[in-house]
Write a structure and sequence with these properties.
- 2 copies of one chain form a homodimer.
- Chain A is of the alpha/beta class.
- An 8-stranded mixed β-sheet of chain A has the order 12-22-21-14-15-16-17-13.
- In chain A, helix 19 links the parallel strand 15 and strand 16.
- The longest helix of chain A is centred in the C-terminal third of the chain and has 25 residues, at about 600-625.
- The radius of gyration of chain A is 32 Å and the shape is elongated.
- The two termini of chain A are about 50 Å apart.
- The model of chain A is unreliable at about 1-15 (pLDDT under 50).
- Chains A and B meet through helix 27, helix 29, helix 30, helix 32 and helix 34 of A and helix 27, helix 29, helix 30, helix 32 and helix 34 of B.
Chain lengths: ~900, ~900
């Protein structure tokens, strides 16, 4: 046993368990984010470059990882290492933990490699005990301050570390206030606050079963463990999942000497961005509160003042802050999000990190910084989250329409965009109603991490307190979701499900509109218009286009969509779904006649009626995309989708067709499938009803000939869906080629048709036998929606019963329908590319699943050597940028 | 153009277009079956070893291949080559094509590398013209014979080569017969037959639009093309598909000098097997007809005599034939199926080929031939079609039960087995009713290749004419399907859908039983008993077990099945489906209670009721399989399968449960899935309802403990189904292991449980990420049913709408659910094995899909290195033999 323990000690001793920063010694730097977390790494970095940072130390993320590896147990040796680090901190500060004369107080904060605002728990004023509070009072000469700090610690420690309910403390506080006849917290005397402390300790003992710890080391070690625990709470996991944060080891713990912004009116605290995070404008941008602790700003409890007003309060500090701002931007070459505290006229920096920004700001910042030579073009491109560009393409309200509606209130323009919806007063309610298809605005006094899900489901977020850096604002901006914060005119009664504005009540059924760019709250729906793109956007897109190797196409089924996508920079259509063309007006009648036909002859008759519609659709699309390729997918869905499944519908169809309802019903039953996803669709239809393919190819060929005769450069590519066997494509290709020849002859067309014929790779087998299929294909287009369904054996329509569990339990890190699964589906894509190019080196390869507009998936596509990605029109700029980023990253590697 | 033609000529000239055999020159041998077809190769071989074979030549299969490659056009140069070969034949025989004095007559027969009895068209007496018939009459001095041969040629040529209907000729023949006042064909005079010829030629001219060709070369070249065409008729393709014949180039064409068995009573024709093809007994076995042409025997038009009776007719010829039999068996080291003709007292051999045999015969022959040192054990094992062994395990009627039923008729014991069914009078009807789930006997006067499908679907075949070598008999024996042939007492009226036996009528609804081992036809259903296996069978199985590397397990869900499979040699259970255990009696109630429970607590309550049932089932199975592994698959199907979907059923369930019907309905709706195959099932159930897994693992663990306490060596393996993601298995494995520990503790069990935990590989992704999954798996079992569904994107329940098309059009060579698709599904299996063993070299790997009992798939499994295959109990001997054959073949390579 002794040997085992010795071994264990030896092993754990190797690991460095704390990293300190301070004037005497600093052990970390900004490059060590994975190990120290973003906060810890940057605190060390700021210290190194001479900024005023209260000293402290970081317990690295590896310790959190070890904590979970050992079944939620504190790693052996960590407590000893912490005590050692505290000793060093005492040396740095000259203070003593628990001292009656000059006590060392620290904050304990979480800090992962990726910023997760408001997600992790924090303990402030740690180190206060019955003894130390006396020391604190002696030191500051401020009795009220001492007891206030102590009662905050007991409350926070009980709440965050021991899992007590905030309310138990709140009640006692209210009792003391009413006993002393005061209303505001700040009105309570030192004596009153001391009484609060006494009551808090009793509550603590009652709920926890032991006394509030009088040993600061015990307070610290328990707090460190609480931070570790907070890493795996439901809300933290949910945040990571929604924000697609994966691959982290855990959170680091930062233990830092306390500085106080709440020691009086020469104290304050604030958060700021070195530039405007909403517009990107190069203007110092932030908020501060006098006589307050940092959490007060972030939590949105008090509404803070703009940082520009600091000048009036303390010009020296303001100028010092501006200097810090410049130093940081220069040092980091990026816009920073900082936290600071002023303690009795001295500025302390508590945090710096890369500032979150809107897409518009990201674009402007990137271009501005290239112009001022802070960064190069590649850096600029890498810095813009490609997925966020969608925001820039989102609609905003028209000024004209705004004038027509009633303005109810104005809040802070927390996150741009324009949203109209009915009101949801709880996150749960928002989720439920949004899932039922309703557009809801989430209306809350303030939001907290528990509301994440509801915020995600809402079309917009409206809060009555909190500022531009409140939880609601930061989270909404990250998502590009419209948010108006701190609209103080709103009086929200969440339990009664209503909000009162100017004495008027608005309920769940009321429709409001919010403008995230102006902060306006309006009654009723407001007309919106298409967004205008900045010249900076064009610049970024130009740079991206210069850098990317892959082409970007779009998925579009109509000339309108095609035209818009072309404006967004689409270099062709990667997927035109022809089935949509069968639903409009008379077409569905002809389609149904075809499906109900009992002979090939009758089917051909019905198809002949459909042909001209389809031909004219193609002429429209080919004209809109002239000079660019247009991939036309032949009929894909099972035929039963075109027939009504209910009795009334069938009766109606029968009446229109002049046949018996029983025949319609019979046909519907005949077409019924247990698993339509795996049924009679795609090229299987063309094998059994070749006349459908013949009609579609006829329409395409006639459209091309019509275009060419009008000197329109039509460039269709025929895509045969759902191929899993070489012979399917071989036979259908021959039939299509034959049809083209027949039509060309009939039309006496002498030119070259030049219509490539290819297939979607969406059946796993197609990827596995790509070598064979490529021999008879001019191109492959990966249909990763179906490929993901089949590779996982997941039906997209049915996964709701278990997918949420899977994401929550960490069985899946991401929804594989949003971001391509590289290990499984991705491997098939790789095999498909390799196999295909082996037998057909000229094979053109693209992707047309929804992954084509997801940046991570686009990067994957670049890596496996695809020629193009195709995505929905609004995603085209995202895909262009993501493709450029993939090229750049490849060169960095 | 001239150059192109020259080039083409040059290319085609390289190819040898005919291979002759005869006393002057023989160009082929028995090894050249792929090129010359089985018939042609063996005719050449027989000639070489000195047997009496009418000389002739073969147009090789490469010409048929070329014919189709050139779009159904006769290969350039083939007609010239044919003329040249005819010249050589004229030299051999001294006869002249079309001669008025000594005309050369030939037969034209198809012959592929694999025997396809009755599938390909044949023309006899070719070379007869208005001139040549005179020569024939002169030569034979038999006017009647000449005109009879000529009318046969015109009929056959019109029918087979020109596609005329047989009836057009038949009518004319009937008219002449009635005009001449005769009933039988043989009664018609030479004059009458001449008149028939004249009428036939008129019919020919009317239907074809030109005269019956008077140029023998034209007759020949048209016939050769007809043989080529016959290769791709629907019936030929269908035969190849059913018999799994793939990879052939086409058919060869054999042109052979005619010999006549119908020139008088010193003539005859027959077919025979060198040993009994039904039992394997070493006894010459066959049938012959006096004064008849060969087709008469095979077609079953006249009922022939046993070959043993030949002795009485012509002892010299009989002895000569016995000598030929011995020569052939010695030369080929195998049982032969021969055709012969006696022309005016001279024996001519027309064919020899390896004789088709029943499984029982194959086993006996193989063992006998090893004992007489004709072949070695490996050859013996390779010679038995592994799939046929199932026949030996099929039931037969009990003698006792037979005595109780009424014997209606007796036919020939054409193919062993015992079948009971209602009567179908057409192949179509048999197919339709069999597909609806009815057991039907196909009752026909005689069968023809058009009936293949119906024969395949029927449980047994009963004919009123035809012998042991008739179409029905040969085909049925090949399949191991019960067949009674030539039951002359039956008077079948197919149009009226009835059969009259002894004046009593039997309709579609009548139930008959037929005994293929005795030829009995009985009224009503007859009790059957399990087959008794011969000691030869045991010998073969013993040899196979010595040779195979793979283990063979069985799929069994009950102690009874398990026991039987063990008797068939199963070395464990590869798949126990636990869901079947939830349907019996009260269990379904508890199961439904579980599904309808609204809380985890209620679910656990219901599960607690199910646990004892499941535990006792396991005790039964573990006991039956003591000492052998039993792989238990945890619950797999979606929960809705356990609830009724109709209103009445739901109402009943609600009443039993004491809840509202609407709640049942609601739950059914909640559980409804668009694609249940891709839905909430398999391990996804265990992730969302872990308590189900806990209950099942509890039952397994308690069963093991109960067994071990009774000193029964229980060896379960827990299989978690439908895993596609490593984390699924990781989490569920931990839960299962934890449950085992808890139960062991609760039961105070101190021994080792030793229960491996593994997974099915049935999701494509599982095969792709096998490296990851294997890290947390003790074993893999390929579930190739689902793997095939997902790899192809085919739902087994829905493929009937297109799969028949796919097989017919040659898009698929085989049903991938019957024989594993090596290119696609097989590649995933390979990847799964490789990946799995990479990270877990000890990984045990098996297969438990239906492919586990298919010989070709078993060979594949051997090749990729699986440890075992698991199949249905009756397939176990097949798998054992197939596994041995795979080992042997591997060594040959």
């Amino acid at each position: 046993m002794a040997t085992a323990t010795a071994k264990k000690k030896k092993r754990t001793n190797k690991v460095k368990m704390t990293y300190c920063w301070g004037s005497l010694k600093t052990e970390g730097d900004a490059t060590q984010k994975q190990l120290l977390g973003g906060k810890g790494a940057n605190l060390a970095e700021m210290t190194s470059i001479g900024l005023p940072v209260p000293s402290g130390f970081t317990i690295p993320t590896t310790m959190c990882e070890a904590y979970y590896k050992e079944g939620s147990k504190m790693p052996a040796g960590l407590n000893d290492a912490t005590i050692k680090a505290i000793k060093q901190l005492e040396k740095e500060t000259g203070k003593k933990f628990g001292s009656k004369t000059d006590p060392l107080l620290v904050s304990v904060r979480s800090g992962a490699a990726v910023s997760m605002p408001g997600m992790m728990d924090t303990v402030l004023n740690l180190g206060l005990t019955d003894d130390a509070v006396q020391g604190m009072i002696e030191l500051t000469g401020n009795e009220r301050f001492g007891w206030d700090a102590y009662r905050r610690l007991i409350n926070m420690f009980g709440d965050v570390v021991m899992g007590m309910e905030h309310e138990s403390f709140e009640k006692e506080f209210e009792k003391v206030k009413s006993k002393h006849g005061v209303k505001l917290d700040t009105e309570l005397s030192a004596k009153g606050l001391k009484e609060v402390c006494d009551r808090y300790k009793k509550v603590y003992r009652r709920k926890v079963g032991s006394d509030f710890p009088q040993d600061p080391i015990k307070q610290l070690t328990l707090s460190v463990e609480a931070v570790f625990r907070s890493w795996n709470t439901h809300r933290a996991k949910s945040y990571r999942q929604i924000n697609d944060i994966t691959g982290l080891r855990g959170t680091a713990v930062n233990v830092q000497t306390m500085v106080f912004g709440n020691m009086g009116t020469d104290c304050g605290t604030g958060v700021a961005f070195t530039r405007n995070p909403s517009t990107g404008e190069d203007k110092f941008f932030g908020e501060f509160l006098i006589d307050a602790q940092g959490e007060d700003v972030v939590a949105g409890i008090r509404t803070p003042k703009p940082v520009s007003e600091m000048k009036k309060w303390n010009n020296r500090i303001f100028n010092e802050l501006l200097k810090v701002k410049k130093t940081l931007e220069k040092h980091y070459s990026d816009m920073q999000d900082i936290e600071f505290t002023i303690e009795k006229g001295k500025l302390w920096m508590l945090q710096t990190r890369t500032g979150k920004r809107t897409a518009a700001a990201a674009v402007k910042l990137a271009v501005d910084m290239v112009r001022s030579r802070m960064i190069n073009k590649d850096e600029a491109l890498l810095r813009i989250p490609a997925g966020d560009l969608v925001q820039l393409l989102l609609p905003s309200f028209t000024a004209k329409s705004k004038h027509k509606v009633k303005m109810l209130a104005r809040g802070l323009p927390a996150s741009p965009g324009a949203a109209t919806g009915t009101l949801a007063f709880s996150a749960d309610d928002a989720v439920k109603r949004a899932e039922a298809g309703e557009n809801v605005l989430l209306v809350r006094k303030e939001t907290s991490p528990e509301d994440i899900d509801g915020m995600h489901h809402a079309v917009g977020i409206l809060t009555s307190t909190g500022g531009m850096t409140s939880h609601a604002a930061v989270v909404a901006r990250g998502w590009g979701k419209c948010c108006v914060a701190g609209a103080a005119a709103l009086h929200i009664d969440a339990a009664a499900k209503r909000v009162t504005i100017d004495g008027k009540k608005y309920t769940e059924k009321s429709v409001l509109s919010i403008d995230g760019g102006t902060g306006e709250v309006m009654l009723g729906a407001v007309e919106r218009h298409e967004p205008k793109l900045s010249s900076d956007f064009d610049t970024i897109m130009k740079w991206a286009d210069q850098r990317r190797r892959m082409n970007v196409r779009t998925n579009a089924d109509s000339p309108t969509d095609a035209k818009r996508a072309r404006e967004f920079g689409a270099e062709g259509i990667g997927l035109t779904r022809t089935e949509h063309m069968f639903f409009e007006g008379d077409r569905i009648l002809a389609m149904r006649r075809m499906i109900l036909a009992e002979t090939k002859g009758k089917r051909e008759e019905a198809l002949a009626r459909l042909m001209p519609y389809q031909r004219d659709d193609f002429i429209g699309i080919f004209t809109a995309m002239k000079g660019l390729p247009v991939t036309v997918r032949l009929l894909d869905p099972p035929l039963h989708e075109f027939l009504p499944h209910d009795h009334a519908g069938q009766k109606e169809v029968a009446a229109t067709m002049g046949i018996k309802p029983s025949r319609v019903k019979h046909r519907v039953e005949q077409l019924h499938e247990f698993n339509p996803m795996l049924g009679h669709r795609g090229c299987r239809l063309a094998v059994t009803y070749p006349e459908i393919l013949v009609m579609q190819v006829t329409a395409i060929t006639e459209a091309v000939i019509a275009c060419k005769r009008k000197r329109i450069d039509a460039r269709p590519e025929i895509m045969i869906p759902l191929v899993g066997i070489e012979e399917e494509l071989e036979q259908l290709r021959a039939l299509a080629a034959n049809t083209m020849m027949t039509i060309a002859k009939k039309e006496r067309f002498k030119g070259k048709l030049n219509i490539p014929i290819g297939t979607m790779i969406e059946i796993p087998r197609a990827a596995l036998v790509a070598e064979q299929i490529a021999e008879v294909a001019d191109f492959f287009s990966f249909g990763t929606n179906d490929l993901t369904q089949l590779t996982y054996g997941f039906s997209r329509d049915d996964i709701n019963s278990f997918l949420p569990h899977y994401l929550e339990d960490g069985i899946l890190e991401r929804d594989p329908f949003q971001t391509i699964d590289r290990d499984g589906v991705g491997r098939l894509v790789e095999m498909g590319c390799e196999g295909g190019r082996k037998t057909n080196p000229k094979l053109k390869i693209g992707i047309c699943g929804e992954h084509g507009g997801d940046p991570s998936s686009v990067e994957f596509c670049h890596g496996v050597g695809l020629d193009y990605v195709s995505c929905s029109p609004f995603r085209v700029p995202t895909a262009r940028l993501a493709a450029a980023q993939a090229s750049i990253k490849e060169n960095i590697k």
